[in-house]
């Protein structure tokens, strides 16, 4: 299993120090590669007052330039908001600059205001998304395109060709995981739902792979939020206030929770109802190194992920210095428990 980090490029409330925040992300990226992580990932959203990353391409180029061996990628690039030929070309260049390390996770988007920003109809997001996936896949394969769909008419090919990129398809529903399997793509999960929901969707994803004949190309790439400290009490004090606010935002904005498999949701009506001891179970990877290892092994047993992509620092914190300590400790005391040797997947021992 590989280990990655998803950075959260946010500076609430109004992005006043977003330049500094990005310098901290790049510094953390260097440390993560030194400490044995296998991949570095970034997200995308639009019109967020805290400076949330609206386009991944420049950031992917920066990550390619300052690293040597780790995967670089997105979880998630919002494919419907960009012309798929541009996505194929931008992705090809990011892959070339990184020497074949691009892992481009794409998704449909959740927020109506983002569709309005680009003059798009959210009711057409599925067909636009699926046409985009097909076009990117065929363009990266070097095809001379002659494509005529509901949304795009394309004739020609992209150049230069990428080296060895991967296209991942994000999903937060049963139809979504079936789509990822139909296109033969790895599936980056969300970080929100618990282990039972992840197991349920993983079963449908792998069953769909058998149905479509794509099983040999599928992989579950698990996203989780977490923090390693001295104890659960330490994590609750240092980290929990930041993650609670983040999860509450998505709980309110993205009504895709699988209620029958999320018993903790009963009685939750405001942020204060998210209690650490209940919310962390079978969901977060937190606590001492031994606590984190035990949680990861539970997910391994349930869904056998190919990748575990962690988010440590949230929009409001903890601090950059605390983030670096967490990355180093996770690399030194958690990742080695899942290596057959200290140099598996090109990892190096943490300093």
From TrEMBL:
SUPFAM superfamilies: Bacterial luciferase-like
Keyword entries, A-Z: Monooxygenase, Oxidoreductase
Residue intervals of the Luciferase-like domain: 1-302
Transmembrane feature ranges: none
Short name of any one Pfam family annotated for the protein: Bac_luciferase
Cited InterPro entries: Bact_Lucif_Oxidored, Luciferase-like_dom, Luciferase-like_sf
Protein name: LLM class flavin-dependent oxidoreductase
Organism: Streptomyces spinosisporus
């Amino acid at each position: 299993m590989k280990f990655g980090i998803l950075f959260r490029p946010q500076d609430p409330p109004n992005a006043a120090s977003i330049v500094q925040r990005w310098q901290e992300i790049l510094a953390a990226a260097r440390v993560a590669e030194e400490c044995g992580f296998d991949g570095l990932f970034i997200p995308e959203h639009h019109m967020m007052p805290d400076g949330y990353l609206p386009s991944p391409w420049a950031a992917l180029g920066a990550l390619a330039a300052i690293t040597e061996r780790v995967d670089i990628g997105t979880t998630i690039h919002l494919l419907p908001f960009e012309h798929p030929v541009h996505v194929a070309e931008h992705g090809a260049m990011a892959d070339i600059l990184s020497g074949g390390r691009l892992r481009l996770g794409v998704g449909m988007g959740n927020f109506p205001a983002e569709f309005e920003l680009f003059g798009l109809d959210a009711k057409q997001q599925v067909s636009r998304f699926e046409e985009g996936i097909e076009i990117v896949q065929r363009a990266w394969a070097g095809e001379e395109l002659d494509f005529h769909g509901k949304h795009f008419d394309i004739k020609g090919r992209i150049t230069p060709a990428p080296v060895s990129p991967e296209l991942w398809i994000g999903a937060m529903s049963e139809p979504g995981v079936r789509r990822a399997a139909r296109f033969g793509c790895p599936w980056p999960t969300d970080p929100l739902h618990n282990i039972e929901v992840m197991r349920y969707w993983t079963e449908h994803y792998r069953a769909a792979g058998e149905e479509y004949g794509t099983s040999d190309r599928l992989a579950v790439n698990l996203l989780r939020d977490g923090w390693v400290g001295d104890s659960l009490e330490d994590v609750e004090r240092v980290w929990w206030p930041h993650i609670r606010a983040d999860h509450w935002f998505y709980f309110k904005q993205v009504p895709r929770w699988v209620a029958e498999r999320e018993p903790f949701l009963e009685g939750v009506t405001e942020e204060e109802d998210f209690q650490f001891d209940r919310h962390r179970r079978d969901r977060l990877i937190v606590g001492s190194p031994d606590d984190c290892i035990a949680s990861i092994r539970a997910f391994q047993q349930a869904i056998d992920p190919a990748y575990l992509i962690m988010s440590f620092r949230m929009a409001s914190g903890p601090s950059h210095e605390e983030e670096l300590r967490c990355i180093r400790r996770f690399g030194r005391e958690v990742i080695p428990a899942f290596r057959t040797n200290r140099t598996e997947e090109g990892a190096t021992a943490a300093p």
